Request: fold
Amino acid sequence: MSFLAPLFFVALAGLAVPVLIHLIQREKKQIQQFPSLMFVRRIPYKSVQRRRIHNWLLLLVRMAALLLIVAAFARPFFASGNMAAAGVQGAREVVILVDQSYSLGYGDRWAQARAAAYAAVNGLGPSDRASLVFFSTGADIALKSSVDKPPLNAAIAAAEPGVGATRYAPALKVAGSLLAESTLPRREVVLISDFQRNGWRGEEGARLPPGTLLTPVAVSGGSGANLSVTSVSFVHSTFSDQERVAVTAAIVNRSMAASKGSGVTLEFGGRSIQSQSVALDAEGTASVTFDPVTITGRNMRGTVRLGADALLPDNAFNFTVSPAEPVRVVVADRGTAGAALHLTRAMAIGDAPKFETTVREPDAISEDDLRGAAVVVLNDVTVSAALGRRLVRFVESGGGLFVAAGPRAVWPDGANLLPATLLQPVDRTQGDAGRVGGLEFGHPVFEPFRAPRSGDFSVARFYGYRAVKPVEGAQVLASFDTGTPALVERRVGAGRVLLWASTLDLSWSDLPLKPVYLPFVHQVLRHLSVYAQTTPWLTVGQVLDPAAGTSRGVTPSGRVALTPSGHRVPLDEEGADVLPLDETGFYSVRSGLGDAELAVVASNVDSAESDLTTMDPKDIVAATLGAPTGVPGGGTGLPQTREAQEGSQRIWWYLLFAGVLLLGADTLLSNRLSKS
Amino acid sequence: MSGNPSAIPGARFMDPVVLARIGNLELVSRAVCDGFINGLHKAPYFGASVDFAEHRGYVPGDDVRRMDWRVWARTDRYYIKEYEAETNANFSVLLDISKSMNYGSRGITKLQYASILTACLTNLVHHQRDRVGLVTFDNDIVDFVPSSAKHMDVVLHTLERITPGRPGNLTVPLHKLAEHFGRRGVLVVISDFYEDPEVIVDAVTPLRFRGNDLIVFHVLDPAELEFGFTDAQAFEDLETGEQMPVVPDALRKEYVELVKAHTEALQAKFSEVRVDYSLLDTSKPLDHALYRFLSGREKRLRSR
Reply:
């Protein structure tokens, strides 16, 4: 018989309680008056105190009840023999997982983690094998299945906290694969970490082989304020024809210690531009807005930096700022006054992106116009064969073409560019007007309208539209209520063509008067111009954007990435373009030939790692071992932990039940005795 | 047995609790004593007032009228003939009315029992034409009824209205009384005697100095004798108010032994000073006390 919580037996001192009740209770019941205590006083007081137990049965029942209840709380169980036998024999395959995230730099956590790793290594037997895995956002195997302790200790000594965030799942998966390859009879995982809650998002598919013993070793401690810059935001403005940007930094105090007057500095190009002071309460937040700064060129490298505190890596936040680049749109209009009014007005609104519009008559569109444009809009015009050929080349080179097919739209036969063949106009002035339905919400053009109350196209009435017949390879994105395609897309070369089977003015529909008109036009132009907002920063663990340094589908050959530490990493020319960010600072993408800077990517630590809130390691144990109580092997005949054995036997329940029964009997018995 | 209409049949052996409920001490005492007297042999106690006591040699100054001439005629010596005192005797009861006497575990307190006893004795003595008196005391004299043939009613009235109030002390009041009782008589002391035997004897003995006959009744409740309590509880001294946690079962044996030793010590010490001592249990009928009184008196008469 063993006990899971033997300390509860201290409560056996409570057995004295019923004895005291027996001896004391009646004394307080009433006062007996007596003529004289002359003789009572002469009897030595000790003998008075030595009172006799009146009812041994009552006493025994009470003591037995207490004994049973205390024993129940001590969680007794019968230890099975196979556990000891199976638990101590055979060599071990041990995987030591050491958390290398930057939060380990808080206080002396890294020293604790290192000491725990040393202890795990030194605890290895002569026939044991150990693998050493350092993990943060990802997991790196430092040493695999080694029997020698010196290399393991050397690897531990050489390691330092990185800039990654804690992620347990990759490390546990690596451990699982290492153990799965092992032939040794016993498998163990030692998980050394500060067990931040942010590092575990549920099971995440990390499973350890059956029979594995997972031992979590928690490191903790550290004190002092821990401020971090979690993000920055920008407000662009123009002053004296120069674009300026005002930077606002969000600052969070993750610790319980208040910070009084910490300095915040805005740097550009490594030089301090502005400084401010910020005071934060414990677990408080604040935002700091700097004065606008003139943007002098593309990819300006900015940093918001805090003063030193207990955890340094989250004190600097890097970002890049570039001048806003407008999307150039050429609108081919028939010249009628007001025909392109709604279209041009719609394009004039908005900053992200800003549309730079040029209106031309179809025959007036030059090669220069097309070379600088990202999108060409044909607003119900007749296209000549020459223009048609030039538009084919424009689209094939990556340009976007938006065709609004009204009553005057004519497309030359030789130019195979449109997604649908134009047929006769359909007159819906009689009877009900036409409506647009059947939107392809999965398409980028209609994706913003997917959610309810995000724009209703059915409110627009169409009194006329062109019947169209989609060509092969074209995709119908929207249809009229009769089933006739309303919007059809086709990819041609590197570019795209969208055909709208009605007008964009009020001649055939009232769509320009509807709220969906503006976002619809913007989405169409964004889609055709392949507009993507540049990300001012990335987080360690993310991969470098494959499109960094490319423009209009042109990928310079021989690109290299210059890491913040100065290493040159050639980007794969075959198109993989995957470079995981593992440093904080600025990655520079350069052309291999001229060494010209094509793009700059800012890299920051994951600010969630600054949150040092811990979790219960048992959650990880339960999730990875497949049993809620952390039973290794999940009951497959392999040794069970003491908790598991106790849980399966549940002796405490019977003891508690018996104790309660005895208490009931005690109540009945004492009631009967008191009545008698 | 007798034609006395006031006699209550069977009153002699009546439970003291029942007597206490009657309330009228005169009625109770008459009932008990009449029944008691009717059952006794009358001869030794009535009409014996001129009994010859002894001869003693003549000394100058003796009354020549008391000279026994017959003895002179036979022996030619002068002897004086002495007789038993013929006058009516003084009879006083000295009753302890301290707070401890106000205890009773079985329907009658020690004081009630002592009052009935006093009334009975007074009634008995009054029938013999003796003078009766009463003194009540606690730590001092409370009521004093001088001995008189006419004080029977006063005694009963005093007994009716006594109330126990103060803690008791034998020495002070009894020493005062010892100086007071100058004329020879019969004194009956009734108390629960919660003092050391030496102190009690020292307090009581002076009452004998002037030739008084002294009878001591030690009245105790059965609970005081047997200590028949079962529950552990706090015991409060009636006189001092002191409280003490007591587990009766644990000390009953020792307590009974102490009480027994106490009464035996009193018995022995009173015997040494020729004082009649009787221990009375309030659960027992009064007859025991009356027998004791009368038999003791008979002994004294014979011894003279």
